[in-house]
Specification:
Oligomer: single chain
Order of helices and strands: EHEEHEEEEHEEEEEHEHEEEHEEEHHHHH
Radius of gyration: 21 Å
Structural class: alpha/beta
Strand order of the largest sheet: 6-5-14-15-16-13-17
Distance between the termini: 44 Å
Shape: globular
Amino acid sequence: MRDVIIVGGGPGGSTAAWRLALAGVRVLVLDGIRFPRVKLCAGWVTRRVWAELGLDPASYPLTVQPFSRATLELDGAALETAWDRSVSFGIVRREFDHFLLERARGAGAEVIDGARVSRVEHHAGRFVVETPQGDFAAPVLIGAGGHYCPVARAFGKIPERETLVVTQESETRIGRVQLSAIAPRPGIPELFAEPDLRGYGWYFSKGDFLNVGIGALDDGRGLHRRTEAFVERLVASGRLPHRLELEPFRGHAYSLRAGAPRRVAGAGFFLVGDAAGLARDVSGEGIAPAVTSGNLAAAHALQRLGGRGEEELASDYRAAIDARFGRSEPGFAACLTELLPRRWVLFFGALICRNPWLRRRLVFEGAFGMG
């Protein structure tokens, strides 16, 4: 028996575990992969996220790339947005996630990685989590295992139709010297709008690493074609010399906050991050929602351990998620996109991207949380 079991050791799970361990809770983190592990992500962390983590980026000991500019390329034109201070920080998820998980372990959390959850059950007021390493039980369960989290599959009432983003990414250690020679804007994220505006690619050098990827609202069948076209685009621009060997592209999927909601909480359980379907609309950014919901889940778990009723607490958690991320339903822009002819959608989307004020407020600060 533990007080709380957390399934998933990414930023959401490790943040919740750290908070709970600091409060003296017997918390166990289970993850199916051994850390440090490769995690697909463009990898930038805003100032707000650092604050929620209780960390200062200046003292973070691993790869961190502050930036105060970003570009969005549309129809061959690179449109730059600049701020008067660093608005976000590039990190390498393999390093970042391991650092946060070890911090939770250092605070007193028990961590078992390489323990893939095979089954989750709830009976007699407790959750039983089955793994090859043994079965574990607790009265409170937090699901932080990403889009395919077993806790979400067991209790999240996942709708048949979700708004899914599919991505393919590659992150390669190249070295600062070589990157400075090939990257037009070293240390500055470059975004490339897809011609149909249903996704975007990115090219981001940070420290010794180059992260290249593309994500789109797609059923997956067109993603390979999109990736090939994007790589050809980077090669033609000189950003990817023919001699440069990248790590193999890997793919994953996750659901956006808009659309049909998952059941993010119930009797004794809470979902966080991608397990709760909290990725930001338009950008698909997921680190901030994971960390924020991880803190919320930890706070609600403490209340449950303190004796507060399960149903009341679940309702409060759902309300807190809605208050922080908005209700899980298509907003005005999404509804307008469905109603307007496609050519109008492309026209207004391009207009937003080209206007400096709208691009800054709606794209980089709104969709990506910068600023």
